[in-house]
Specification:
With 72 residues, the protein is of the alpha+beta class. 29% of the residues lie in helices and 32% in strands. The chain has one domain: 2-Layer Sandwich (Alpha-Beta Plaits), CATH 3.30.70. It has two helices and four strands, in the order βαββαβ.
């Protein structure tokens, strides 16, 4: 299992609700959280090693939201 950490623009509960069905129904994702109080609105995903950053970025972009891999 791997952990993916991304910077997002998911800034409130409405945006979280938009992405929730996508993540909750994805077979590779075990758990996920978004820290809307953090400056980077950090999205943390626990998933199988098969899930890539590119796949997560596509899923989030499909909901008219933004994210990118968070480095350092």
């Amino acid at each position: 299992m791997g952990i993916l950490v991304l910077k997002t623009n998911i800034h409130d509960t409405l945006a979280k609700r938009r992405i929730q069905p996508v993540f909750d129904n994805h077979p590779e994702i075990r758990a996920w959280t978004v820290d809307i109080d953090d400056e980077d609105k950090v999205l943390r995903i626990e998933a199988s090693d098969n899930l890539s950053y590119d796949e997560v970025i596509q899923m989030v972009s499909g909901q008219d939201l933004y994210c990118e891999e968070l480095t350092n």
